[in-house]
Amino acid sequence: MKKSLFCLMLIASLILLNTEASAYLPDFGFEGGNWGGWASQGSENAVLGLDVFPKDDDSSMTVLPYYGSYMARVNSYDGESDLYPPDAPFYVFNNFITQTFEWGGEDMSFWYNYFTWDYGEWDEGQFYPYDDPGFSVWLDGSEIWSWSASSLDDEGGIDNAVDSTGWQQFTFTADNFRGLYYEEGSEIALWIYAGNTGDDEVPSWVYIDGERNVIPEPMTMSLLGLGILGLAGFRRKK
Predict the structure, then answer these.
(1) Mind listing the pLDDT tens digit for each residue in 165-217?
(2) What is the CB-side half-sphere exposure of residue 1 using CA atoms within 13 A?
(3) Which of 46, 76, 118, 198 is buried deepest, with most CB atoms within 10 A?
(4) Between 2-22 and 218-237, two packed helices, what is the crossing angle to 10 degrees?
(5) Which residues contact 184 (CB under 8 A, 6 or more apart)?
């Protein structure tokens, strides 16, 4: 009996420790098919399974989630061309997902796949600069990471050529947080933006995905505690 009680208490301690280590970070998995604890604005979707969009050669391109069945897409594109849908918000800081979280002293990590049709050149007497940034990550009021479309344009300024980073991991370490003078327990607002900065025609957008942060629910912890108390009471009765 003592051994059973000890084992249950050990399991409870491990769960509590795991909660301390993982309960703070945003859930980058989007596996509910919705935004969960995220707020969003502009052109954005929690995409199920895959996303298909047209390429310049009349074929199509498919993007699959990095983990699971869902991913988030920030910013948009027309379903039939490389132009924006009518009346869609195009400016990079008009399209975002955001969440405020309590930092618990751990690294923050997620996966991104940044796409752009931008090619940055003169067209009919007007210069259309690259989206810079086309994808940007902020903590509170400070930018901590960004991509410019110029870093992806491997076609040398050719119109209608879509480029992407492929799935890449972004990690902001505990030392990075401390370098910005955050302490454990700090409430931090994370913002992820994507869109245009130089024109309102050829779009940039990003997919976000990651492993889901699984946090024991209060009811689960309560039931575990009641179970331990029940075993202790049963032991006294005997």
Answers:
(1) 999 999 999 999 999 999 999 999 999 999 888 677 778 889 999 876 544 44
(2) 10
(3) 118
(4) 160
(5) 103, 104, 105
Distance from C-alpha of 29 to C-alpha of 165, rounded to nearest angstrom: 19
Is 124 or 73 the better-scoring residue by pLDDT? 73
Alpha helices in the chain (DSSP H): 2-22, 174-179, 218-237
Q: State whether residue 130 is helix, strand or coil.
A: coil
Residues 148 and 133: their CA atoms lie apart, in Å, by 5
Q: Sheet harboring 39-41: ordered strands across?
A: 39-41, 96-102, 187-194, 135-139, 142-147
Strands 142-147 and 60-63: unpaired
pTM for this model (two decimals): 0.74
DSSP state of 93: G
